[in-house]
Write a structure and sequence with these properties.
about 220 residues, YmcC-like fold, 12-stranded antiparallel β-sheet, mainly beta
Length: about 220
């Protein structure tokens, strides 16, 4: 009888231990799709074309280096990370281009450039999730959505529209788990809408920029 009772007690203890271990398994919220830590940097190869008018454009190749330089705590108690973007033509001489911020708020990654905040990613990042990228801006709704690019790589579709007559707007960002943003593409164009060129997709104005990471790490 005592042996049987001992077995039952040991079994109950084992079950309780297993249940406790299951309950204590941490939930992966996917924050490492965009790591935030002072010293982290990402170097991008950039291909940019600016269209000034019909048959008038300027193409350039260069490099961007984004580095988290510091952070501060705002009035809401949130850590705001300051990112410095430098530009170079040869990866030797760098000149500061802009500074922008990144912060996590309500399971959203907010990137603010020139006082224009955009919700660039949400957590946990799940394929099929959609959200308003303009949640913190006084503009109309801009729906972003997540698709699966490959294992541990997600693509945020910011815009994918074109009427093939007056405009083209294709924008997306790609994030890699444990790395951060590894690619950014933006092609925002207007086409000539005069009677003599309507439907010919003759670019009237706009920009096209493609950024792909070639290096990342921590200083």
């Amino acid at each position: 009888m005592v042996t049987r009772l001992l077995i039952l007690l040991l079994s109950a203890a084992a079950c309780f231990s297993c249940q406790r271990q299951i309950e204590e398994v941490p939930v992966d919220l996917g924050f490492d799709y965009q790591p935030l830590e002072v010293g982290l940097y990402w170097t991008y190869e950039v291909d940019q074309t600016i269209y000034f008018g019909e048959n008038d454009s300027e193409q350039s190749d260069f490099y961007y280096k984004d580095e988290i330089k510091s952070f501060y705590v705002n009035e809401a108690g949130e850590q705001v990370y300051i990112v410095e973007r430098a530009k170079s033509s040869d990866q030797s001489d760098w000149a500061e281009e802009i500074q922008f911020t990144l912060l996590l708020r309500n399971f959203s990654l907010i990137r603010t450039i020139d006082n224009e905040p955009i919700v660039s990613l949400v957590f946990p990042p799940s394929v099929g999730t959609s959200w308003d990228g303009n949640s913190y801006r006084s503009l109309g709704k801009d729906e972003f959505s997540l698709i699966n690019e490959s294992t541990d790589v997600l693509k945020v579709i910011q815009e994918d529209s074109e009427d093939q007559i007056t405009y083209r707007d294709i924008r997306y960002e790609t994030y890699s788990k444990g790395v951060g943003m590894i690619e950014k593409y933006s092609e925002v164009l207007t086409y000539c809408s005069r009677n003599d060129c309507l439907g010919d997709q003759l670019i009237n104005s706009g920009t096209k920029i493609h950024m792909k990471t070639i290096d990342h790490g921590k200083n």
